[in-house]
Design goal:
Structural class: alpha/beta
Number of strands: 26
Shape: globular
Largest sheet: 13 strands, mixed
Number of domains: 2
Length: 462
């Protein structure tokens, strides 16, 4: 495996590396190397510590993150849109020795005066009071797993994990120097970070876009920056469908990549209709696997919602006796961390990940996902997959399905109750379950995490 991409930036010289979609500012690989080196010097060459890096999907956010990696510290990458209360909780739990982020946010977290970071716009660095924390020598990156499952812990990743994963994604997707990705996902989301890493590894370029894709200005900028690929979760693709993305023959984007959640039948049908002018590549991944686990080539995209493709290079997928998906390979995390004491831990998993997802592998070696292991419940003696029910109902109305004892709760946004009643009646007949075991709850809006995925964690606040 070659050296980390962040120490090899100079080799691509004057090729364009990063473009800020909002400002139009560009950095060549040579300029990116100089900028990250300058920022890394501000972070100091002291004993290895933890940098809490609050980096959004902008050119300066990307520079600050890459510089933090280049400084040889371990980096906890977090969205700067995280609430101050949550950030203070992370500081207390993980005891970072450095804080990097926008001046307004860092100013609220750090008691001392933040220092400006040359080359990184409004980004500043500060040193909060912290414990003397011992870090494992292999630890390089922490990413939060507080996504749709409702958990809130960090994944510990090594330099090898990061480098292998970047290569796996680049290899599986065939990333070439001529490719240019439009990145609208958060950098702190493993899918978004994989786009940045895989493209910088290959000398390709990335348009960093922090604005909503519903803004006309985003697409006006794309006519100048000419991205060729775009990554998104289902919510991203739903927005593209609504704004008539596929109706623009002048669009430079010829490839969409999807991961993170299930596709509704309507959305899957729309994506198939875009072919061959715009191809769609479906993927399956987890933060615990650093990024991607499987990739389905665009030519095999069909109407099967659970089909997510073949294992990425250097990884193996097996199915246990109880149908759990097990992944092995050098991209598998070192383990979890709930606080600063866990940062000294080594590799707890030995390269084997029990994903908690249920699935099967067909005779062609393709993985199908059927639900979450922890999302099967027994209702009146019948085994029910909450994921499959949620997928069926969400085809009509955005839905979150949960269960408590013998009651299944279907949470939807206000105003869709009548429509959901009809769809739920049909589901009850298909499942042979009485209607009284289902309860519909309407809320003003369903919570989503920064990547756009529906979040069960947010239900507790509604």
């Amino acid at each position: 495996m070659q050296n980390p991409y962040w120490v090899n930036l100079q080799r691509f010289g004057d090729r364009t590396a990063l473009i800020d979609g909002a400002t139009g500012e560009k950095l060549t690989y040579r300029a990116l190397a100089e900028a990250t080196e300058g920022v890394a010097q501000h972070l100091g060459d002291h004993e290895k510590g933890l940098v809490l890096a609050l980096c959004d999907t902008t050119l300066h956010g990307a520079v600050a993150f890459i510089a933090a990696l280049a400084s040889n510290h371990a980096v906890f990458l977090v969205s700067p849109r995280t609430s101050v209360d949550e950030l203070m909780m992370l500081v207390a739990r993980f005891q970072p020795s450095l804080l990097v982020g926008p001046s307004a946010v860092i100013g609220e977290l750090a008691p001392n005066t933040p220092k400006s970071l040359e080359f990184a716009g409004d980004m500043v660095v500060a040193r909060p009071p912290s414990r003397s924390t011992k870090l494992h020598p292999d630890l390089r990156l922490l990413l939060s797993t507080s996504g749709s499952s409702g958990s809130a812990k960090a994944v510990r990743l090594s330099e090898r994990n990061i480098c292998v994963s970047a290569w796996q994604v680049a290899s599986a997707l065939g990333v070439e120097p001529s490719h240019r990705a439009l990145l609208t996902l958060p950098l702190s989301y493993t899918f978004g970070l994989s786009v940045l890493s895989s493209h910088l590894l290959c000398g390709a370029s990335v348009v960093l876009e922090n604005r909503s894709i519903l803004q006309r200005s985003v697409w006006e900028a794309c006519t100048h920056h000419t991205p060729t690929t775009m990554a998104g979760v289902a919510f991203t693709l739903e927005m593209l469908m609504k704004i008539g993305f596929g109706d623009n023959p002048a669009s430079s984007i010829t490839t969409l990549t999807h991961s993170g959640d299930a596709l509704s039948p309507e959305l899957l049908s729309w994506l198939c209709s875009l072919s061959p002018r715009i191809r769609t590549i479906r993927m399956y991944g987890m933060t615990e696997a650093t990024s991607r686990i499987s990739v389905l080539p665009s030519g095999e995209l069909d109407q099967s919602p659970g089909l997510v493709g073949y294992a990425v290079p250097l990884s193996d997928i097996t199915i246990s006796a109880d149908h759990e998906v097990i992944v092995s390979g050098p991209n598998i995390m070192m383990g979890y961390a709930n606080g600063w004491l866990d940062l000294a831990r080594g590799d707890d998993l030995g390269g084997v990940l029990h994903t908690g997802d249920m699935g099967l592998v067909d005779d062609r070696g393709r993985l199908y996902l059927t639900g979450r292991k922890s999302r099967f419940v027994k209702i009146m003696g019948a085994r029910l997959s909450l994921d499959l029910l949620e997928e069926r109902l969400a085809a009509a109305v955005p839905t979150i399905v949960t269960a408590d004892r013998d009651i299944v709760t279907v949470t939807i946004e206000r105003g869709f109750g009548g429509s959901m009643n009809d769809h739920l009646d049909k589901a009850c007949r298909a499942l042979r379950l009485p209607r009284h075991v289902f309860k519909i709850v309407e809320v003003d809006s369903l919570a989503r995490n920064p990547s756009g995925k529906l979040s069960r964690r947010g239900l507790s606040d509604q």
